[in-house]
Amino acid sequence: MLLVPKLNEQSGIPYYIQLYDYFTKAILGGALESGTRLPSIRRLAALCGISATPVELAYQQLAAEGFIASRPRSGYYILPVHSSGSAADSGERPRQAGRPITPRDSRRFAFDFHISRNDFSLFPHKVWRSLYQEQLANADLLQYGDPQGEPALRQSIAAHLRRFRGLSCTEEQIIIAGDQYTLCSLLCLLLKDRVSALGIEDPGYHLLPAAFKRSGYRIMPVPLEEDGLNLDKLHDSGADAVYLSPSHQFPRGMAMPIAKRLALLEWARSTGGYIIEDDYDGEFRYHGRPIPALQGLAEGSPVIYMCSFAQSVAPALCIHYMVLPEELLPLYHSLRSELYLEHSASRLHQIALHYFMERGYFEQHLRRMRLLYQRKHDALLRSIRQHFGDSALLSGTDAGFHLLLTLTAPGAGSAKELAAAAEAEGIRVTPMSYTWWDQPDRDEPVFILGFAGIAEELINEGIRRLAGVWLR
């Protein structure tokens, strides 16, 4: 029997978050079993004495994370989430280098839907300049810094990750670097005696697996299903580590549901393997709360968490970081001494960013950027539906900085031909084909459309012209 959630009006926590917390704890703790039918939105709202909106928001978030599913004309039901030996058995509850490829040419496009472009119209120039000038007055910051990253910034990052991404970590687990490749190279060294084969999402992001391949690791492409990585294929691959983006898969954009996340953790436990979680855009979800990171689902998590400030602040800061499992920290410190590691991210930027976070500017900036990117995301959806109609399918929506457009018009042509035709009209789009690991010649008309960098007022005209080129 479902007990009516007790909501605290005085806590200051929105009702929909209180409801979400109640149901996740009850489901993961086993108090609510798989298959249980939840009250309708109106019924639960009446029982709690609140409006229907918080209940609807809570149900939407639970559905997005794979805790519940809606059945037509039947209602919401709890999905199976428990996996033998998983975090669910102990009652634990869930706790963002831009995407490739960085533009290399100097060509100007009237309508640029490239994925690696950002919008800096809301960048807090005055605040950042003031914080940075503060650090210039500190002569000590011109000395060599901590190779692991400035302790103050690591503390700020750890606090942010615990509060907003659901991680279970301390500042001692965080390693800061100036670019993704430096972190990838460190991982190659850290795991060389523990891992021989790396499973990767196919299609997916290639920087990390390319670095691992160069270091002698075997790369095992694993296909995707509708809800993320195919775990049966992962088991069969013989991989002893896996690299993936579970909160918003690149490039296809699906979110891995809770049941599959717990099963993935069980795979790591049973094989002694590691999970490398790329959370490149996890803080940017536009309808519902951000989905908590995989790392925080279990104590002693075998997850190596990777993220950066490239999209959330600016790529020019060159501040990337990873969170290591505690068991790998002695290996890192041994490497640090052996290789005479030095700081690779500017100390001035690191300390300025620390104060940017500590004084609340970062959280404020994230809220403003989410609203800006949400408007662009929604404008792009509307424009594609208006100008392409049934001639295109959309996927990977509601989060991140891109979506996928699949052209379904008969005889549309190859992706290369279509991209070239668009470029001739001043429109830049990116075929998805380069994201396949072993199949670089695939040329289906599937395109990655980035919306972060293009001006909001140009989106509709750009899509109208694109439809005119492709559907003529």
Give the structure's gist in a few sentences.
With 472 residues, the protein is of the alpha/beta class.
User: How big a fraction of the residues is strand?
Assistant: 5-15%
How does the helix and strand content classify structurally?
alpha/beta
- Which series of helices and strands comes N to C? HHHEEEHHEHEHEEHEHEEEHHHEEHEEEH
Shape verdict:
globular
What kind of assembly state do the chains in view correspond to? single chain
Sheet having the most strands: 8 strands, mixed
Spatial strand sequence of the major β-sheet: 4-11-10-9-8-5-6-7
Unreliable stretches covering 5 or more consecutive residues: 83-106
Give the mean pLDDT. Answer: 89
Rg value = 23 Å
How many individual β-strands?
16
Annotation keywords:
globular; alpha/beta; single chain; 16 strands; 472 residues; four-stranded antiparallel beta sheet
Written overview of the protein:
With 472 residues, this protein is an alpha/beta fold. Helices cover 37% and strands 14% of the residues. Helix 1 crosses helix 3, helix 4 (125-136) packs across helix 11 (347-358) and helix 12 packs parallel to helix 14 (459-470). The longest helix is centred in the last third of the chain and has 28 residues, at 361-388. Mean pLDDT is 89; it is low at 83-106.
